[in-house]
Design a protein that fits this description.
Elements (H helix, E strand, L loop, with lengths): L8 H20 L1 H11 L7 H17 L1 H10 L2 H21 L3 H29 L6 H28 L2 H23 L14 H23 L2 H4 L21 H25 L4 H19 L12 H21 L14 H29 L4 H25 L5 H19 L11 H28 L5 H36 L6 H30 L26
């Protein structure tokens, strides 16, 4: 690794953290806007199942390519990855904003997920670059906190924008914010000097051709998707916007096809810039792990957690996930340079991944089932149910900051394990909540706050232990695996807990000789109680595993902390 050269490392980390918060907010921003987005692509309120790709497409992009982005972050300058991810997020936001077809909107959300998800491991690896072991606690806590703050401000931002505009404004704001953050990273951190493997400098005329192709693709595809009335209804200019045959898709027009051709030319010209880096990556391994993770996400994320465990294609996708995972395991053993280098998942990285998996399950159980319980017992308003959940969501980033601060004095095990134990005890108490519990304020508020603080406290110790034991040349990959583990815990853990809860729900309903609304509601409460009980057990397991994260305060490295990450180049 070359010596970092950024003159303003803290400004760079702060900017990257804001970008992480923006991407995290986008995960939840569609909660209130989903119905309007459905109308924008011609779906009625009765077609909710058809709209699930709007959400699952984002999750697919967020999770499936994270290991690949983590590997890229270990090969080129971190700020290049940050800027590249932000630009993908910007493109995805703009595509979503102008989409009128479901397929185009899902593609935009997928690009948003890829860009937004990639920001997290790159920023965590950035912390490892800027601070030596023993001093990473607070910055890791900050990164964890801003990521959780995104889950709080996402729905609030969506509600604020919808109060003064339409849903498309949400994504235009994402576009402009992403561009501003990319520019800020370029200013405070630069774009990184080329590594020794970048090869000879690209001629100026090739760069000019690439820029022209990029501009042509941007203009043509943008016009095709936007299709302004002033052009489409014009006798002189409307011809290129007429769809081919019976198609109604805006890309299936002359201008759309021209734009796709320009995009293909752009990709061909850009190969010269990224091929030398990509050839150092196990592309086959990246495809296999993306297929396995993607099939897993689509299996569970496309389902309605209140009614079903797996999505409509789940029983076809699960075998695909298993086969792809088996093939990747074979690839991992046989490839000369696998995507996840040998020696990365060692030491405390293993318990860190398991704890992250469990933390994801505990968090999502509360995020999903507290609103369910609220709608069953105290309100029919989704907004009021979300306000009850806010007590938990606010506590998580506070816990993340507290956990990072405690790492300066205590070992990761002594920070994470007690926090997760507190969350487990709070969840055990929540598993006893009944029809009248949420009518009061002190008890539910206290339990939700304790549960949030507990899981939040564990975030920084998990990342700190994983980064400490992972090789310095693989911090990006290790960080991506921690994030993937947490997201898989959210998606799969919720499905499994919901399966058990639904089993108890249907068993209770079938035992009723004459079901009434009250008895069915009571059965629904039993389902929620079951999910909380399962989450409590998961949190208890996480607390036990967290004892393996290390009981000593991480030692400060002998060399001084890096002053930036400007020109990073890693050898294989």
């Amino acid at each position: 690794m070359q010596s970092p050269t950024s003159a303003r490392p803290r400004a760079l980390l702060a900017t990257a953290s804001v970008a992480v918060a923006l991407a995290a907010a986008d995960t939840y921003v569609v909660v209130l806007a989903l119905q309007d987005m459905m109308s924008g692509v011609g779906l009625g309120v009765d077609a909710l199942q058809k709209a699930t790709p709007i959400i699952s497409g984002f999750l697919l992009g967020y999770i499936a390519v994270l290991p690949l982005i983590g590997r890229l972050a270990d090969l080129v300058a971190r700020q290049r990855i940050l800027i590249g991810c932000l630009l993908l997020f910007v493109v995805g936001s703009a595509v979503t904003a102008i989409s009128v077809d479901l397929s185009v909107m899902v593609a935009g959300r997928f690009l948003q997920g890829v860009g937004g998800g990639g920001l997290v491991p790159a920023t965590l690896a950035l912390v490892a670059d800027l601070w030596p072991p023993g001093k990473r606690g607070t910055p890791l806590g900050v990164v964890g906190a801003v990521q959780e703050i995104g889950s709080v401000i996402g729905p609030l931002l969506g509600a604020l924008v919808l109060a003064i505009g339409d849903w498309r404004m949400i994504f235009w704001l994402n576009t402009f914010a992403g561009l501003a953050l990319a520019a800020a990273i370029l200013v405070v951190g630069g774009h990184g000097a080329p590594s020794a493997d970048d090869g000879p400098r690209v001629p100026w005329w090739w760069s000019l051709l690439t820029a022209v192709a990029a501009l042509a693709a941007f203009v043509l595809l943008g016009l095709a998707l936007w299709a302004p009335d002033s052009l489409t209804t014009s006798i002189r200019w409307g011809g290129p916007f007429v769809p081919y045959g019976d198609s109604s898709a805006r890309l299936m027009t002359q201008i759309g096809v021209w734009g796709l051709i320009a995009l293909a030319v752009l990709i061909a010209l850009s190969v010269r810039y990224w091929w030398r880096t990509v050839r150092r990556i196990d592309v086959l391994g990246a495809l296999l792990i993306a297929l396995a993770l993607g099939a897993l996400v689509l299996t569970f994320a496309a389902s309605n957690p209140e009614k079903q465990v797996v999505g409509p294609m789940g029983y076809w996708l699960l075998p695909v996930a298993v086969i792809a995972a088996a093939l990747y395991a074979w690839r991992q053993r046989t490839a000369a340079s696998p995507l996840i280098a040998r020696g990365v998942v060692v030491g405390r990285v293993r318990p860190a991944l398991l704890v992250s998996l469990c933390v994801g399950t505990a968090i999502v159980a509360i995020v999903v089932d507290i609103p369910v319980l609220a709608r069953l017992t105290v309100t029919s308003s989704q907004t009021e149910a979300a306000l009850i959940l806010l007590r938990f969501l606010v506590a998580v980033p506070v816990g993340a900051l507290l956990g990072g601060w405690l790492l300066r004095r205590l070992g990761p095990a002594y920070v994470a394990a007690p926090g997760l134990l507190i969350s487990a005890l709070a969840l055990f108490q929540m598993s006893t909540w009944g029809a009248n519990t949420l009518d009061s304020w002190p008890l539910p508020s206290t339990m939700l706050a304790l549960a949030g603080l507990g899981v939040g406290v564990a975030i920084a110790p998990v990342n700190d232990a994983a980064l400490y034991d992972a090789p310095r040349s693989a911090h990006g990959v290790a960080s991506s695996l921690v994030v993937v583990a947490r997201m898989i815990g959210m998606v799969v853990g919720l499905a499994l807990l919901t399966a058990i809860g639904l089993h108890r729900f249907y068993a209770r309903v079938q035992s009723l000789s004459n079901p009434s609304e009250e008895t069915v509601t009571a059965a629904g409460i039993v389902q929620v109680q079951t999910v909380f009980l399962g989450a409590a057990i998961v949190a208890l397991v996480a607390a036990a595993v967290a004892l393996l994260l290390g009981r000593q305060v991480s030692e400060v490295a002998d060399e001084p902390a890096a002053r930036g990450i400007g020109d990073v180049a890693l050898d294989d």
